[in-house]
Design goal:
four-stranded antiparallel beta sheet; globular; disordered N terminus; alpha+beta; Alpha-Beta Plaits; two-stranded antiparallel ribbon
Length: 153
């Protein structure tokens, strides 16, 4: 038996372990809707659909594009993480509250910048921007569309 087999047996035994008067498996069935929302949020955050690293040949900077609101909610996160962001351009449509912001960050500040961007989807949902993740997903599909078409030709 390898270490992976032991982990599988251990995790399988936890699913049926009773906690109080109900089991974890029973809890997941009763709260399936909440579980789906949490899994969707984790999946969106792990996939990083709300920002893209752009190709650049700079020695000192990394270039990014990220989705924010017209109220610039990400700015407060950058201040909290104490990261300096050099904003380049932004683009937005008049029919929604979101904009795509192009910026550059020093390579030495990149980890703090990415930490701030990881917090952005949670902040958007807390402040009532429920369509943020859907907009980010459609933006990501729009960016990937030319790549997919190029593969088929």
């Amino acid at each position: 038996m390898t270490g992976n087999d032991t982990r599988l047996i251990f995790s399988a035994s936890l699913v049926n372990f009773p906690v109080g008067d109900f089991s974890i498996a029973n809890f997941k069935q009763k709260n399936n809707y909440f579980h789906q929302i949490v899994m969707k949020l984790q999946q969106e955050v792990l996939c990083n659909t709300h920002f893209v690293q752009l190709e650049s040949h700079s020695l000192l900077f990394r270039h990014y594009a990220f989705v924010d609101t017209k109220d610039y909610l990400a700015d407060q996160l950058f201040i909290q993480e104490k990261v300096r962001v050099y904003f380049r351009q932004e683009t937005h449509r008049t029919d929604n509250d979101y904009c795509v912001i192009f910026c550059k960050v020093r390579k030495r500040d990149e980890t703090a910048f990415l930490t701030a961007l990881q917090k952005l989807p949670s902040k958007m949902l807390l402040l009532g921007h429920a369509g943020y993740l859907d907009f980010c997903r459609s933006f990501q599909e729009l960016l990937n569309a030319p790549q997919k078409e190029g593969l088929h030709e």
